Amino acid sequence: MDAFSQLIDGFGTALTPAHLGLAALGVLLGTFIGVLPGIGPAMAVALLLPVTYGLEPTGAFIMFAGIYYGGMFGGSTTSILLNTPGESAAVVTAIEGNPMARKGRGSQALAAAAIGHFVGGLIGTIALVLLAPTVAKLAIDIGAPDYFAIMVLAFIAVTSVLGSSRVRGFASLLIGLAIGLIGLDEMTGQQRLTFGSLELADGIDVVIVAVGLFAVGESLWVAAHLRRRPSEPIPVGRPWLGRDDLRRSWKPWLRGPVIGFPFGAMPAGGAEIPTFLSYVTEKRLSKNRKEFGHGAIEGVAGPEATASASAAGTLVSMLTLGLPTTAVAAVMLAAFQQYGIQPGPLLFERESELVWGLIASLFVGLTLLLLLNLPLAPVWAKLLKIPRPYLYAGILFFASVGAYAVSGQVVDLIVLYVIGLIGLAMRRYGLPVLPAVIGVILGPAAEQQMRRALQLSDGEIGGLFNTPMSIVIYAIVALILLWPLVRKLLPSRPAAPDDEPAEREPEKVG
């Protein structure tokens, strides 16, 4: 009850007119900035950090919380409507959200995403209130072998269910892993695949890779086919969820937080792995597996709820341990230090009013996000009525601006369009794009955790599976890989369609 009473006091702080206004302003700014391709919540918080210099700490962090959730939803909006993820956590949303938009169901996809954000964030924030100390304590005990096993599971699970064949899925993953190797070796400082360029020594930012493969690759593909097929605006569709949509979405909305919050709370967590796993889970459990890859609403609802719950989970590590697990958390940690506040085990005692006001503002921000964006869903969907040549020209412009804003280097623009050409070639030969993005995001982290585990075991291969958690995860990996063989040995019976292509066939685009 102590936590509950402190949360009530936090609502007293968050619901003052000034703080309520800051929360609403943060949600609006975050949504509008998040809609720009390549400019996600982390960059939004970083750009707006100087604006808060004149604010008192509680008001500043309440505004940051609104920007965080608003930016996440803005990134999902561009993923759904334009196939252009605003951040890495919104990559999975594009797989089903964009085909829905192309069928004239963009408003329903946006509504499913908005409600998913609300439900996932609500459950995640409640878990933050109740379980923060416990989850943080458990997360500390997770070692390098466990992290590496989790990442291997993400690699295998997603590449096994995407694409017209597993060979193409793994080929796409290898492309992503190769891109992820570019830069300096974190262990030795040796340059890898930089071709002597100092600008590539820091590696390629994942936002540039995601925007290049999705936005630029898609734009070039559409441009290559516009002459053959007339350019017609895509219909907006009706702006509400039907009974069938709600029936198919409510379970993914509830399953998402179960996957997202624990991963977000891990010291090396984030929203990438859980959103990938949520998509795989929903495809396996859905009765409409044949629809996946062509606009299944479960593939939007589940990952969006997962990402929002994971965002709440990241605050566990940041507030209780002082460990930023995402770029946004790192920027917020810098903001804490700017005010002379050090997150950690004693933060809840020393800055009780600020912390509980921040947590209460998460509930307020989620509610404002839902109230603002449900009515705006049809408005955002009208972006699709813009004629294709102008629409994709705008996408290329904003994608270029977003890539250049990452570090202000012209080389980033060159890399963006080189990766865009790779994305065009992948579409031409039927390789799914998502495994490549997974390889870029998780490849460097997986390598680091693998080498750390081997160092701890003096090079013994057994150091990769010497914990109970890692053994269980590798057993799941083996089951996923061997399941097609096992299924052939089982007695034949009518089965639901399983591995459907997650990428649109080339002839259907344009």
What's the helix and strand layout?
Layout: H1 2-14, H2 17-34, H3 41-48, H4 57-82, H5 93-102, H6 106-140, H7 144-161, H8 166-180, E1 183-184, E2 191-192, H9 206-225, H10 243-265, H11 272-285, H12 298-321, H13 327-338, H14 347-350, H15 352-381, H16 388-407, H17 410-428, H18 434-456, H19 468-489
Antiparallel strand pairs: 1-2
Helix pairs in contact: 1-15, 2-4, 2-15, 3-4, 3-13, 4-5, 4-6, 4-12, 4-13, 4-15, 5-6, 5-12, 6-10, 6-12, 6-15, 7-8, 7-11, 7-18, 7-19, 8-18, 9-16, 9-17, 10-11, 10-12, 11-12, 16-17
Overall description:
Residues 20-437 form the DUF112 domain. InterPro entries: DUF112_TM. Keywords: Membrane, Transmembrane, Transmembrane helix. This is Putative tricarboxylic transport membrane protein. This protein is mainly α and 510 residues long. The chain has one domain (2-508). Helices cover 69% and strands 1% of the residues. It has 19 helices and two strands. It has helices spanning 2-14, 17-34, 41-48, 57-82, 93-102, 106-140, 144-161, 166-180, 206-225, 243-265, 272-285, 298-321, 327-338, 347-350, 352-381, 388-407, 410-428, 434-456, 468-489; strands spanning 183-184, 191-192. The chain has a two-stranded antiparallel sheet with strand order 1-2. The longest helix has 35 residues, at 106-140. The N and C termini lie far apart (57 Å). The relative contact order is 0.18.
